[in-house]
Amino acid sequence: MTSERNTDIEIRLLIEAIYLKYSYDFRDYSGASIKRRILHAVRQFDCRTVSALQERVLHDPGMFLELLQYLTIPVSEMFRDPGHFLALRNEVVPLLRTWPSLKLWIAGCSTGEEVYSMAILLREEGLLERTILYATDINPHSLERAKQGIYSMQSMREYEENYRKAGGRRDFSEYYTAAYGNAIMDSSLRDNVTFADHSLATDSVFSETQLVSCRNVLIYFNKDLQDRALGLFHESLCHRGFLVLGSKESVDFSAYSEGFEPLVRPERIYRKT
Amino acid sequence: MNGVSAIVIGASAGGVTALFSVLGALPADFAIPVLCLLHLPDDRHSQLAEVLQRRLRRPVREALDKARIEPGLIYVAGPGYHLSVERDFSFSLSQEAPVHFSRPAIDFLFESAADAYGPGLLGVLLTGANEDGARGLLRIRQSGGRTVVQDPRDAQVALMPEAALALHDPDHILSLGGIGQLLATLEPSAC
C-alpha cells in the first residue's frame, strides 16, 4: 500500500518535472494509462523507482526524448475502421467538393498512417491537388517517421484489406514501392502535407480548416483536456466544417456537445453547428 | 466486513456461460456496480452487452470512455481497447499493445480498479485458457481488496484460475454457484 502511494506521488512529480523542464504537458492525461506507460519505461530503463527515472530525465534531454516514446502511443494503421473511411468517401467528400480549396488537419497523426489514408482517399476523389493537409503530433520521432512514409510490408498486407473495405478504387500496391520487406509510400501523396509539432494541451489554433480528423487521441485525455482539444477543433473549423473522431470517441459528454451535430454517428463523423 | 464499492469479473474461454451463471444469481435490486471483461473475438464482443441484458433482464452497458460508473449497473468491456478505471470512478479506454494477446486485458482493468477502489474492490477470476488476470488479481489483494477464484475443477478451462492460484491465495475458491451466492449477499459500501 505504502509503495503504491509513493509511486502515485512520484508519477505526479515526474509529470510536473517534464512540464516545467520540457513544456510537454501530460498533467491532464487519463491517469491509469499514463501510469502503466511510465512504469513500463521505469522497467525498460532499468530504474529502481520513478524518482530515479525523473532524475535522469531532468538532467538529460536525450533521455526525455526516449521517455517520450513510451508516453505517446504510436498504435495506428491505414484505413483503420474501414466503415469510417467509406462514410467519409460517401457522405463527406461530396460536401467537401463544394469548397474551391481545402485545408484539413490530422491532429495527433502519430507515424502517419491516418495521413496517407486520407491523402489516398482525397486523390481518388480528385481533391488532393486542391487540399493542404496539416499533420501534427507532439512526438518528433513519430513525425519524422510520418514524413518518411516507410512501413513494413507485413502491415501493408493488413492495410490492403482495410483499403478494399473502405471503398478503395485502385490496386493498393500502386501507392507504394516495395523494397527490402518495407513499403515506401508514393512521395507525391505528401506533396501538400505540412508536418508540424503541435500540442493539443498547450498550443493554439494555427489555421482555419474544413475538416479535422483526430482519432484515438482524445481517449488518452481527461475530460478537461478533451474539452480543450475539442475547443481548438471548433475554433479551427469553418462554418459547417467536419470533425471526425475514433470509433470509441464522441462529443456527447463534452462541453461541445451542442457545438457539433452527428452526420454519421456510428462512424463518429460530426459537423460544426 | 466492510461494504463493497465495486466488483470486477474477468473471464476468457468458457466465460459467456460462466458469466450468465454468476450474474444470474444477483438479486434485482443489487446496487454494487459490476465491471465484466470477457475475452472474445472482436465481432462477437460488440453484442455481449445486449445478449447479457436480454438474458439477465437488467441493464447492461458497454463501458464507454469517460463514463461515470453508476451503482446498480453491469458493465462490459467493448472490443479492441483496453479498459481502465480512473480515480474519479469513471472509465477510460486506451490502445496500448495487447497483454497476453488480449485487448482488452483483464490485468489492466483489475490493476486500475485496485488503484481506484482499494479495499472496496472485489475481484473475481473465472474460466479461461490464458494467464491474463492473475497479476491483476494479486494487485487487488495488495491494495486491500478481496479476491475470488473459480475452483479450477469447476472451470470449463482451468488454466486461468490455476495461473491466479499460482500467484496468491485468494479469499475464496468457489464453484460458479458458490460465487453467485457470495456476490448476492454482498453489501454495498456506504460511500
Automatic annotation (TrEMBL), chain A:
<dbReference type="InterPro" id="IPR050903">
    <property type="entry name" value="Bact_Chemotaxis_MeTrfase"/>
</dbReference>
<feature type="domain" description="CheR-type methyltransferase">
    <location>
        <begin position="1"/>
        <end position="261"/>
    </location>
</feature>
<dbReference type="InterPro" id="IPR022641">
    <property type="entry name" value="CheR_N"/>
</dbReference>
<dbReference type="Pfam" id="PF01739">
    <property type="entry name" value="CheR"/>
</dbReference>
<dbReference type="Pfam" id="PF03705">
    <property type="entry name" value="CheR_N"/>
</dbReference>
<dbReference type="GO" id="GO:0008757">
    <property type="term" value="F:S-adenosylmethionine-dependent methyltransferase activity"/>
</dbReference>
<dbReference type="InterPro" id="IPR022642">
    <property type="entry name" value="CheR_C"/>
</dbReference>
<dbReference type="InterPro" id="IPR000780">
    <property type="entry name" value="CheR_MeTrfase"/>
</dbReference>
<dbReference type="InterPro" id="IPR029063">
    <property type="entry name" value="SAM-dependent_MTases_sf"/>
</dbReference>
<protein>
    <submittedName>
        <fullName>Protein-glutamate O-methyltransferase CheR</fullName>
    </submittedName>
</protein>
TrEMBL record, chain B:
<feature type="active site">
    <location>
        <position position="132"/>
    </location>
</feature>
<protein>
    <recommendedName>
        <fullName>protein-glutamate methylesterase</fullName>
        <ecNumber>3.1.1.61</ecNumber>
    </recommendedName>
</protein>
<feature type="domain" description="CheB-type methylesterase">
    <location>
        <begin position="1"/>
        <end position="183"/>
    </location>
</feature>
<keyword id="KW-0145">Chemotaxis</keyword>
<dbReference type="InterPro" id="IPR000673">
    <property type="entry name" value="Sig_transdc_resp-reg_Me-estase"/>
</dbReference>
<dbReference type="GO" id="GO:0005737">
    <property type="term" value="C:cytoplasm"/>
</dbReference>
<dbReference type="GO" id="GO:0000156">
    <property type="term" value="F:phosphorelay response regulator activity"/>
</dbReference>
<feature type="active site">
    <location>
        <position position="12"/>
    </location>
</feature>
<dbReference type="InterPro" id="IPR035909">
    <property type="entry name" value="CheB_C"/>
</dbReference>
<feature type="active site">
    <location>
        <position position="39"/>
    </location>
</feature>
<dbReference type="GO" id="GO:0006935">
    <property type="term" value="P:chemotaxis"/>
</dbReference>
<keyword id="KW-0378">Hydrolase</keyword>
<dbReference type="Pfam" id="PF01339">
    <property type="entry name" value="CheB_methylest"/>
</dbReference>
<dbReference type="GO" id="GO:0008984">
    <property type="term" value="F:protein-glutamate methylesterase activity"/>
</dbReference>
